[in-house]
Amino acid sequence: MNALPPWLVPLPDAEAMRAIDRWAIERRGVPGLDLMERAGAGVARAVERLAPDGPVTIVCGKGNNGGDGLVVARLLREADRRVTVVCAESPQAFAGDARANLERLPGEPPVDLDGAPWERGTDPPGSRADAATDVLTGAELVVDAILGTGFQGEPHGAAADAIEAVNHAGRRVVSVDVPSGVDASTGEVSGAAVRATLTVSFHAGKPGLWINPGKAHAGEVQTIDIGIPRGAPGTSPIGLIAPSVLGVLARRGAASTKFSSGHVLVVGGSRGLTGAPRMAAAASMRTGAGYVTACVPASLQALLASGGTPEMMTRGLPDEDGALSADGVDAVLEASARGGALALGPGLGRTAGALEFARSLARQARLAMVLDADGLNAHAGRLHELAARGAPTVLTPHAGELGRLLELDSAQIERARLRHVRAAAERSAAVVVLKGDDTLVAEPSGRVAVSPGGAPALATAGTGDVLTGVIAALLAQGLDPFTAAAAGVRLHTQAGREAARRVGSAEGVIATDVIAALPAVRAAQDVRGQRDHGSCDD
Predict the structure, then answer these.
(1) CB-based contacts of 263: which residues, under 8 Å, 6+ apart?
(2) Is residue 243 part of a domain?
(3) Of residues 78 and 312, which shows the higher confidence score?
(4) For all residues of the chain together, what is the average pLDDT?
């Protein structure tokens, strides 16, 4: 698997973090207790910022995550905070560094449930379980130190009870490294999982904090240094897309022409769906494509030409009642002779003829292609056919479309987004962009770029067509498909934020606002690049 490019911030999974910790302790001589101390100190600082006053309850499991929580408890007590520690399992089960920090804990000993249920009413008033429930609901803030990054699967027993109790208390929650119940490596949630206000992650963010459904449980993510030396071994196959990715975008110079700036063919449109190819074409132009041709049903060509920007060229293709037919494939292949990139699918429709047209064109076209919307639906259950293409391919499905490609329902996709986007990339031999707040860009080797998201303005009709046009323009300008897709996702996300700023709210944004914001985002990146040489900070 190829190493991550510099514009991806590594997100090590649980196995990689174990190797990093082991290297720091065994090869570089950093005591595990020191790593735990620094981790706990970072969480304690976060607690103080989030809740400067009031009682704090810390719920600890028996592993190193619980040990981190015990450090938090000690440091807060030393700062004269009122802190209650609840052990989800018997303190007698604590071992190693966690045991050492249990013995260091000053003040009141932990509340030991010793297997007793958490729910009020199942034990007599004044019982240990009753007391534990009281300290959760009475806390200003709860620290979740139940399960750590090594957890996989579904929580059971005392850990599951503790997670449910923390969620039921309705308090603000700071999770230690990862919300308990979330798979740190994949973001999958198979059972009960803490819903955190803030997650403090150690050394580096973890994939599960940025990939849904885990992302939805993590709240704000803060990554802190815990003293692991530079040069830790291993590479991560997953990274967070940094703003510096926009530094790879082509810039026009004195010798540039419309041909060197890239030609995009937008192919689609049908009766009632003429807006989609217009928006994809406009997005390609605003992303820097030198010229764009919309290949559309001949019966709708005049309508599309009159409603689009005057710079957009159109070409009418044979159609049947306003939908493309397989007879139009040769005309598109002829138009693609000068190269560039193909954006296939916006507004295509789902008539039998249009779907056959999409399959035939995808199979025969020898130029880079973005496949979206009904271009994807044309390949439902036939994803493997795309592997035979002889040119770069990028697929841009949402969960429903990816489900149809893999013959799964969308709920299955959403439960295991990372697993399924990788499967689709491998099966299609293409780069697959699974859209969402955590948009994932996967290539067949398994390498994945993750969008930090944070652009709710994009949750409106037409923004998917905009993304298709953006990526197509970057492919036409010569970027490899993985880079084009990741840069396109980042540019699209930042344009969504900029559009919301301009109109005053995310809810007021429409897709054409996002298109209009694209040049400003590129200009801002040019200024940033001159100032800080492509910093990875947002």
Answers:
(1) 289, 290, 291, 292, 293, 338, 339, 340, 341, 476
(2) no
(3) 78
(4) 92
